[in-house]
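Supplementary Methods S3. Complex input for the zinc ion-bound model.
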Amino acid sequence: MHVKILLQITADDGVSGCVEEIASLDKSIERAEDLGLSISQSKALLAAAQQRIVEAQTTSWTEGRRCCEVCTRRRRSKGSYPIIFHTLFGDVRLSSPRFHRCPCQEGSGKATVSPLAQLIPDHVAPERLYLETRWASLVSYVAAGDLLADILPITAGVNATTVRRHVLRVAERTEAELPKDRCSFMPGSPLDWEALPVPNGRIVVGLDGGYVRDWNERKSNFEVIVGRSMPDPEDGAPRYLGFVHGYDRKPKRRLVDMLESQGLQANQDITFLTDGGEEIRSLTERISPCSEHVLDWFHITMRITVLGQFAKGVAQYDEEAGARLTTELARIKWKLWHGNTTEAQDVIEDFEGDLFGLETDYPNLRKFVATAREFGVYIASNAASLINYGERYRSGERISSAFVEATVNAVVSKRFAKKQQMQWSPRGAHLLLQTRTRTLDGTLRSTFERWFPGLANDNTGCAVQGEAA
Ligand SMILES: [Zn+2]
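Predicted complex, serialized as structure tokens:
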């Protein structure tokens, strides 16, 4: 069977245009795989149609800008130069005409005008930029390039390097939109706050760190801070945050920006859950008058669990002492859970004393003592950030940033994983974090639609014959 596919293009005047054959296929009907278009046929078809449609559009665009805007005289041609416009449906080869500046504009600006350079200054179609960014935020640059090439007529030009360059360009654009950082974002006076509408509920933000392997210094890592912000009631969409610690110059602004996108106002209750690290804690300070910093329960229990393992070790050498230490740890946990911070610290002190006076052959005793000491300091220095976890838990509020731990895994580990043999520069990781967090929380698309408003109504003026209603 022979199939011929025609393309008809008609200009806005309804007259000029062309009908052209873009594909001619001989199809046999022997096997299932003979039916319909094959992937390579569909690619060839799409690429041929795209080439001609874009050619017709850009010719029309250029023609419309041929005459001088001031005196309407036709500009003289000064030849053209070839450009490649990277689209999802192939790399379109175009010739970009150059016109001499109109004599009436003598002495102003450039000597020549290239209309196409205004239309496609960076030679990439926004949709291609979007999909490259989205996929490379989820999988490696190489895999993203392969994915695109698998199903779309993209052969030359799609490789990890191009994809990476495009994605970093997108990330840099989002970075440029973020205003400068300030040390305080505290708004107006309390009198102004009272006039504000009652906010919807508490925003809970979990912040935690993860590590990414450094490209420059193979053996070392740098720290990535990741956050997840959840508005309450939960119908509001959560947002992600990520940046490279020490590299990012606007961490606080970034956090405020995320909160503002969720309706942050001065009388908004915010709970910041962190592991109590000094750097992360200072990030949460002076952001809102109604915010609190809470040491997250997950990190407390992790430390108690480690101490419990040491106590079990002791029990192998001194059963009674091991049991006693285990009981004391349970009491510490109980006190902390119920927000009895002072009493908890007393028990920790007793526990340390007990441990210090211990005479046993347990080989890890010194390590045990040091870990217990460290835990005491940890609780003491975060005493102001301890709450009645039990009560909050019973009232259905979040007390643990286990969800942040999951966020670190989701944002960092899966894309920046050490086992992928990927190594990162702080800049590359930081920029990719910007597109990755937007991809994960679904805001990448709206960012693109803000930049390229036409993407928001990409289905208008489209009627496909035979398509189900
Ligand atoms: Zn003129």
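The pocket of zinc ion is lined by residues 68, 70-71, 73, 102, 104-105 (CB under 6 Å). The first strand starts at residue 2 and ends at 10.
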